[in-house]
Specification:
Layout: H1 13-24, E1 33-34, H2 41-59, H3 65-85, E2 92-93, H4 96-120
Antiparallel strand pairs: 1-2
Length: 121
């Protein structure tokens, strides 16, 4: 594998299309309510990204350390981009439909990570 690979996921056409898809589905998040003590959209997204990134690493144990670090940085970028799109509802409690959408969306992002890793092999 190459030592430094720029833009494994972030700033690729596929990723940009997914962010546009998220933005085009903002109406789905209009029903989010302020969170008293329940889980927030931020917590759901953070957990989903962390879970999917751990899955990427466990499925690809031979990834070089510098590539792992880059993937972690790109996961941070993904988190920041999702936060930017969902900023108005970030600290609200999600509905089940919103959680399902986020699960599907983050799975699609994971597919981009998987594809990027496959190209490095």
């Amino acid at each position: 594998m190459e030592n430094t690979v720029k833009n494994l996921v972030a700033h690729t056409e596929g990723y940009e299309a997914l962010i546009e898809y998220l933005a085009s589905n903002l109406t789905l998040f209009e029903g989010a309510s302020a969170s008293d003590q329940g889980v927030t959209i931020e917590e759901v997204v953070t957990d989903l990204i962390a879970t999917q990134l751990m899955a990427v690493f466990s499925q690809n144990p031979d990834i070089e350390q510098d590539i792992r670090f880059q993937l972690m940085q790109e996961a941070d970028s993904v988190m920041a981009n999702i936060h930017q799109v969902l900023e108005g509802v970030w600290l609200r409690e999600p509905t089940n439909e919103q959680i399902n959408f986020l699960e599907d969306f983050i799975s699609l992002v994971k597919n981009l990570f998987d594809s990027a890793i496959a190209k490095l092999s």
